[in-house]
Amino acid sequence: MREFWIIFKQAFTSKAKSKSFIITTALMIAGIFLLSNISKIIDTVQNVTGAGDSQEVLQVVDESGIIVDRLQAQLEAGEYDISVKAATESEAVLDDKVSSGEIESFLALSVDEHGTIHANYTTMSMIDFSIPRRIQEALQSIQTELKAEELSLTGAQVQTLFTPIQFEQKNVSRSAKSEEELGQARVLVYVLMFVIYFAVILYSSMIAMDVANEKSSRVMEILISSVSPVKHMFAKVLGIGSLGILQIIIYGVAGFIALKTSSTGVPGEFSDFLSIQDVSISTLVYAAVFFLLGYFLYATLAALLGSLVSRTEDVQQMIMPMSLLIVAAFLIAMTGLGNPEVGYVTYSSYFPFFAPLVMFLRVGMLDLPMWEPLLSIAIMLLTIFILGWFGARVYRGGVLMYGPSRSLKDIKKAIQLGKE
Amino acid sequence: MSLQLENVTKRFGVFTAVDHLNLTVDKGSMYGFLGANGAGKTTTFRMILGLLNANEGNITWNDKTISYATSPEIGYLPEERGLYPKMKVEDQLIFLGELRGMKKADAKKSIDYWLERFEVSQNKNKKVEELSKGNQQKIQVIAALMHDPKLLILDEPFSGLDPVNVEMLKKAITDFRNNGATILFSSHRMDHVEELCEKLSIIHHGKQIVSGSLRDVKRSFDRQNVRIRSDYDLTELGSVPGVLSVAHSIEGAVFQIEDEKVANDLLSAALEAGPLRHFEIEEPSLQDIFIAKVGKEYA
Q1: Can you say how many angstroms the Cα of residue A99 is from the centroid of all Cα atoms in its chain?
Q2: Which of B198, B218, B238 is the last residue of a domain?
Q3: B156 and B194 inside one domain
Q4: What is the ipTM of this complex?
Q5: B83: chain A residues, CB-CB within 8 Å
Q6: pLDDT 10s digits, A140-194
Q7: Would an 8 Å CB–CB cutoff place B114 in contact with chain A?
Q8: Which domain holds residue A93?
C-alpha cells in the first residue's frame, strides 16, 4: 500500500506543480470572472462608445390618413421601441432610398372598400423579423377597433369577444416535471453535462498520455520492478482523478464567488439557476456520482490503451475509439435535452459508456423511479470492475511491450505477455 | 546470500528467448553476463526482477522467490535510460528511492552522497533532459545504488561513459561487491568483464554456450595463441599441423593453435628456422572466446 501512495502522490503533485496546470487553471478562473461580468463590461463599453441606444423611426406612407396616428398610439401603448411618423415623400422616392441604403425600411398603408388594412413593409434587410411582426400585431388591433366602431360595438363588447379560454396543462406522467422545473433543470443539466464531458475527455487522455510517457522514457521498467503494474495503474488513475476533482472544485468555487460578487446578473435563466438557492441538490449529487463513475470508466480504459503504445505520438490515435464513445454519449445526451423521454435515450442510458452523460440527463430532467439510476450505476460499477480486471491484465504485458504498436489488436499480444 | 537460476526457460509463443539457463551468483561476487544483442539478456533480467515469469525452472534469491516484497533489496539499472525527462534530478531520485522503500530523509542524504561521489552535485535541481548523456547515465546509476541494495542487476552499466567515468563507476561497483553485494551485470565490453567478474556466462540465441569461472572458461578453451618474435622467416610455420591461423607482423607472428601440444611442434619448427628472441603461449582473451563461440558477425 505504501508504494501505491507514493505513485499516487507523484501522479498528483508532478501534474499539480506543472506550469501548464497552473496556467490553465489561472486562465480558466480569469475566464469565469470575465464571463460572469460580461454584461457589466458590455454596458461600460456601450456607455463609452455611445452605441446601442438608437431608436427606430419608421416612415409611413398612409393613403387613408387615419391609421398612422392610431399606429403611433398603439405602438406607444405597447412596449415597442419603434416610433412611426408620416412620410413626407412619395412611396416611389422612399423605395429608392431603401434600395440605396439611405433608410432601412418604410411602411405603406391603405384601406380598401371592405375596411381591410393593407400594409406593405419594404426593407433591404432579410433578417428583420421582429419589427414587421410587431407592426402586424399593432395593425391587427387597429383593424379590430375600426371594425368594432363600424359595428357600433362598445369596448366591453369587444373585450368579451376576445376573452381567452382557460387552458391549463396537467401532466399525470410520473416521470414528468412541471414546465418551470424542467426549464431550470435543463440549464443545470446542460452545464453539468458539459463539465462531465470535458472533464472525462480531458483527464482520461491525460492518463493515457502519462502512461505512454512513462513507457517511452523507459522509466516504467524501473517502476514496475518495484511496484506491481496493477497497483501502478490504479494509483495513477486515482492520482489524476483527484487532480481533476481539485481542478473542478477550484472552478466551482471561483464561479460561485464570481457570481456573488458581480452586481449585474447574468441574463435570464442562467442567473436563476446559478443563484444556487433553487439548485436541486439531488441533481448536483447525481452529477458528482456520474462524473466519478464516468471518469473511472474512461480512465481505466485510457490507462489500458496508453499501456499499448510506446511513443506519445501514437496516443491520440490509440484513444480515438474511446474519444468517439464519449462524443457519441454527448451527442445522444444533447439531443435528449429537448426530449429526454425518447426511446433511444432511455435505452442508451443503460449502456455503460453512455450512461455517465445520458443517465445523468434523464435523472436531472425526469422524475425517475429510484431503481433506474441505481441500475445504471450498478452496470457502470460492474463495467469499471471488469475493465479494471481486464485492463490490469493488458497493462501488465502492455508496459513491457515496445515497438510499433498502434492498433487494438495488440491487446491480445499484451495479455499474452502479461500472462507470461 | 546468492542468486540462483535453475533450468530457466522462457518462450514467447514458438520463439524460445531463454533456453535452460543455469547460473549461481554468490554473495560478494560479480557475475558477467555476455551475449550479442537479442541473445536473451534483458529477458533474463526481467525474469529475475519478476516482470516476466519463466515457463520452466526456478529463480531464487536467498532461497526465496523474488517478489515485490524483496524489491527494496534489489537495485536495477536498465539498459536504456529510465528516467522522467521533465522531472528534476533530486525529486526524481527521491521518488525512485521511496519506491524502493527508503524514507525521504534517508533518500536525500544518500542522493547528496552519490551526487558528490559522481561529481554531478551541480545538477541536483536540473531537469534530466537538460543533462548530457553521460550525466544521465550517472543519475540512472544512482537510482540503482542509492538504497544500498544487496542484489544488483546492471544492464550495460558502462555504456555512454567516458574512460574516467567508467573507472569511477567500476570503483563504486567493486565497493558494493566488497561490502557483500551480489552483482550480475551484462556488457558488450569483454575487457570490463575480464577485469571485474569471477564468473561469467555467454549466451547466444537464448542458449548458454559458455559458463563458469573466468579461469575455467579460459582453460577449457583449447585454442591458444603462440607469439613468436624472430629475425628469421616464419612463413613456413603456418603449415605446421594444428595451426588455425597466422597473423604476421614485422617482429614475428601470432599463431592460433588447436591445443597446447601444437605449441611444442611450433617451437621446434621455429628453432629450425633460426634463433628466437621471444616465445610465449598466451591465454586466449575473452574477446577471442566470444568471437569463436558466437561468431565474428557480432563482435
Answers
A1: 41
A2: B218
A3: yes
A4: 0.76
A5: 217, 219
A6: 888 888 888 888 887 788 788 778 888 776 666 555 566 666 777 778 788 888 8
A7: no
A8: 57-161
